[in-house]
Amino acid sequence: MATTAADDQFDLLAKYQAGDWRGVWTQVTVDDSEATPPRRMRTHIELVEDGTATHHVNTPDGGEPQDYGIHRKGEPHVAKFLPRAFLYGPNLFPAAAKGPPGAFATEVGLRLADARVRVVFVHAGLPLGGGAGLLRFTVIREADGDSNYAVGRRDLWAEWAGPKERGPWQGTIQRYNAEEECWINESVSGGTEEDASWCVENRAKWSASPLKLQARPGAPFASDDYLKHDLDGQIRIAVPTRWAAGDQKSLAVEWAPVGAKKCLVARVEILMDADGAPRMTSFLVEDLDEVLELSD
Q1: How far is Cα 248 from Cα 182, in angstroms, rounded to an integer?
Q2: pLDDT in tens, 148-167
Q3: 77, 100, 148, 214: which has the fewest C-beta neighbours closer than 10 Å?
Q4: CA angle 39, 42, 45 (to 5 degrees)
Q5: Domain spanning 5-290: CATH superfamily
Q6: pLDDT tens digit string along 9-35?
């Protein structure tokens, strides 16, 4: 029997995301009106039914489990999976959920070895059809089977103490085109940092942090419409603070753990439809290695 795209996505979910993930969740409210202390959470994604399905349960440390049910092979999945990255969303909050009208969430995950970084962005609907504004984001640092809830993984969450900026970086690109419903593997030749737009194909060479370079004047994340954050553990984010109807913008997460000489970057392009519904149009992932110098 021929495999389908849904089968392939399930295989990536089962191979790279199933596990007993334990980590620290830190929520950041944009206007700082709510101070939420970090919390420990266990995310258990178990293979069941002879490996043909996954069962997902979240359990807060000392709290009651939250069961997200079973996903079977062959069923369409709301997420997009790659070996080193995944994307959930953007998804509108259900009517019964707590949250302001028109709120939607976008989760970007990056995986390296037995550790993951996930960032969940929540945009809330603005009044009078004003689109959506960034409400909060949650940063999740976790490791598979780590009884310390990733706290002890200093190789992953340490801060860079070197004498110079890290880099250069070089590697490969994979991009999901939502309109064509297919993955596109990009080559590593061509394209420069000065091209500014991250949509330029074939780029996988950077002299320094991709998100830092793309926050320079004239680059995609330079404007005040974007929130740029450097987070503990060599994590960087860039996210629009506001989406108006008709806007097509991108958000991005970068992770370059000190002990790995790797840099992973995920970018999600989202179109806000005229009716205020967000729609993913492209998901691009760069898998970069730290090199002594960039090759031709």
Answers
A1: 20
A2: 776 666 677 777 877 788 88
A3: 148
A4: 150
A5: Calycin beta-barrel core domain (2.40.128.20)
A6: 889 899 999 999 999 999 988 876 555
- What residue type is assigned to position 38 of the chain? P
Rounded to two decimals, what is the model's pTM? 0.88
Domain segments of the chain as ranges: 5-290
User: Nearest 5°: phi and psi at 289?
Assistant: -110, 145
Instruction: Report the candidate in 238, 241, 264 with the shortest Cα–Cα distance to residue 82.
Output: 264
Residue 67 DSSP SS3 = strand
Residue in the structure block whose two tokens are 């809830």: 149
pLDDT (tens digit per residue) in 101-158: 678 899 999 999 889 999 999 998 766 556 688 989 999 999 998 777 766 666 777 7
What integer is the mean pLDDT of 192-212?
A: 61
Q: How many CA atoms lie within 13 A of 203 on its CB side?
A: 17
Alpha helices in 83-164 (DSSP H): 154-157
Q: What amino acid occupies position 249?
A: K
Residues 6+ apart with CB under 8 A from 246: 272, 274
Cβ-count burial 107-117 (b if 16+ within 10 Å, e if not): bbbbbbeebbb
Other CB atoms within a 10 A radius of the CB of residue 32 amount to 7
Cβ neighbour number for residue 141 with a 10 Å cutoff: 24
Question: For residue 88, what is the DSSP state?
Answer: E
User: Which residue type, as a one-letter code, is found at position 162?
Assistant: G
Q: Which two tokens stand for residue 150?
A: 């990733």
Signed CA dihedral, 287, 290, 295, 296: sign only: positive
Burial of 205 (0-12, 13-18, 19+ CB in 10 A): buried
